[in-house]
Write the structure tokens for this entry.
Amino acid sequence: MTKKTLIILFFSFFVFYFFSITNSPIHQFTNHLSPVTYLYAYPPGVQQPTGGRIIGRVSNRTRGGIPMPRLEVFLEKYVNQNLSEKVKTVADAEGYFQFFNLPVTPEHSYRVLLDYQGVSYSGHPFSFHENETLETIEMGVYESTDNPENIGIQIKHIIIEIEEKVFKITEALRLENSGNKTFLGPLRFSLPKGFTELKYERGLMSCCLMEKEDGFLEKMPFYPGYKEVTYSYQIKYKSSHYLFNSLIDYPIDSLDLIIRDLGLKLESKRLVFIGPVQMGEKKFLRLSARGLNSGENVEIKISGLPVGPERYRIIVLFLAGLVVLFGFVYPFIRKKREKVEIVEIVEEGLTGEPAEIETGKTYEERKKELIKTIAELDDQYAEGKIDAKEYQKLRLKKKKILINLMKHRLVSNNTNVNE
């Protein structure tokens, strides 16, 4: 073996050793991309293209990261964040793919994507860094399933505000796909009966949602990992009592219900009262439950709800106090008025022979009876059922009895006052 041959072999060994120990982007990618594949990506004798270059590999994470051969891989090209072109290549037998001759200026950006078992997978958009022309990427895919057995909720918050006979409710939850397959969905979100004003606030795309009478569905695939969503809605109530219920779609590790503190009475078999919570300038009451199963219906009976605008509650309480006070003093006012009315009738100057005063009935009963009798006499006379002479005689008699009755009551009242 000649000296020249030994030098070439030594240099080749040094290059291989260098790539195996350095922390360069090339080394980071060589966990999946072999140095041989990288060094001989272009056929020998062919001039290497200029510009940026993307080298990637597709692997199946459900099956331990094995390579996925012969899959179509797409590259979206953007100029100033506007899509300008979409090109395609096919991964080789070991799952590797490449894109060449890419502009590396700052206004150019790229995104790699592919489809597997009806699910789209995409990398994050990126641009080449300054003075760099190589980007390596690992594209992981999962097997798909429509079985929700690995779908759960780590924590769910239900926050209830109360304004003018309306519950304003916000639900925030952290979903988990604890399996190693992509859940095809749909994800189910049940809501209380009669909900309105549904708004999707975080982690949900309106294009892929379907609202139903009892909630809504999300048709996006759910990859293994976590997903945080927030949405809000309203429920109207009519009385001071309301039964709020929440159907559990997926197992929940921890559920918190936080409701505005307006002096309410709360009852629940499943939720445990934790205590008051201060949120800004408002006070809330917190209830909690752990280990909820799919299909459970958590109920809470709410009593003492305001049935009018909250700003009018003080006025309502004030008026209620006036009613109570009036009920206390009214008997005294009424007794004084009765004495004055009797005096006025006696002083009308009606005279004649003494009239009878019947006993055995209360003053009010006898008084009403006499007034009714006089009214009936007036009706009989108006209908021609009794002549004028008889009418005058009977009416005068009943009137004298009524006056004497009032006189008797007046004397009794004066006696009580003097005592």
